[in-house]
């Protein structure tokens, strides 16, 4: 990806956008540590510390992800919602996630509760961003039903664990990254990281098993181009 971009340096930064966006992309696209990304760049002749890469990831990852999200197509009208527990400093938190019927992640939200109020907050956030869906599929957690009744959206709510397999695979990359990072340090850090991580995964991990080789290569090329365009617009 580095060789595909020729961009001026950001004001106050020693390296051009191409190097910074590549580091952010590699960190979020693959299950790599910051030191792994440091080694990848070193192999390409770019000598930079992992702490500098951390600063790039924290500052520019969110900006690129926001632009990627802004250019996404509108999701399908069938949503799958689920929540998984994550441990932060020895305390249980809940990661709420929603995907559409194609498996694209719509949003995530880290909360300390798994009740109707937390469910209502998450669903209201989704509707504010994407509009009202036709169908919402969840597991049998009663909080979803209570939240939907309170919001009075009038959507078709289907509560069945077997119908919600679509979203289960979306949690696996989170578990992998959680293990590599030695657990998240705070709810804010988890929210910030996973928002960028899920947006990157949505862009670069299409349902490859349902594509021909040529279709996948075309999709991957389009994803690279979109990432480059979004990175080109980032500012210091």
Automatic annotation (TrEMBL):
Keyword DNA-binding assigned: yes
SUPFAM superfamilies membership: Ribonuclease H-like
An MF annotation (GO) of this entry: DNA binding
Gene3D superfamilies: Ribonuclease H-like superfamily/Ribonuclease H
Keywords annotated in UniProt: DNA recombination, DNA-binding, Transposition
Domain named DDE: residues: 77-203
Biological processes annotated in GO: DNA recombination; transposition
Top-rank taxon: Bacteria
Keyword check for DNA-binding: yes
Function: Involved in the transposition of the insertion sequence.
NCBIfam families: transpos_IS6
The protein's name: Transposase
Organism the protein comes from: Thioclava dalianensis
């Amino acid at each position: 990806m580095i060789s595909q971009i020729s961009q001026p340096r950001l004001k106050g930064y020693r390296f051009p956008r191409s190097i910074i966006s590549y580091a952010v992309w590699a960190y979020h696209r693959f299950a790599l540590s910051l030191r792994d990304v440091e080694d990848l760049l070193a192999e390409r002749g770019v000598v930079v510390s992992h702490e500098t890469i951390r600063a790039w990831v924290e500052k520019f990852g969110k900006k690129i992800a926001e632009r990627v999200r802004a250019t996404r197509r509108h999701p399908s009208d069938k949503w799958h919602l689920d929540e998984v527990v994550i441990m932060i400093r020895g305390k249980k938190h809940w990661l709420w996630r929603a995907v559409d019927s194609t498996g694209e992640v719509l949003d995530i939200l880290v909360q300390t509760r798994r009740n109707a109020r937390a469910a209502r907050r998450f669903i209201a956030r989704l509707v504010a961003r994407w509009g009202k869906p036709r169908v919402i599929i969840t597991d049998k957690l009663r909080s979803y039903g209570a939240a939907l009744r309170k919001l009075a959206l009038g959507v078709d709510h289907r509560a069945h664990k077997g119908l919600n397999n679509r979203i289960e695979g979306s949690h696996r990359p989170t578990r992998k990254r959680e293990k590599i990072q030695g657990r998240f340090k705070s709810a804010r850090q988890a929210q910030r990281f996973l928002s960028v991580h899920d947006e990157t995964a949505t862009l670069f991990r299409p349902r490859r098993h349902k594509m021909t080789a040529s279709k996948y290569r075309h999709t991957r090329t389009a994803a690279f181009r979109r990432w480059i365009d979004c990175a080109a617009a980032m500012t210091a």
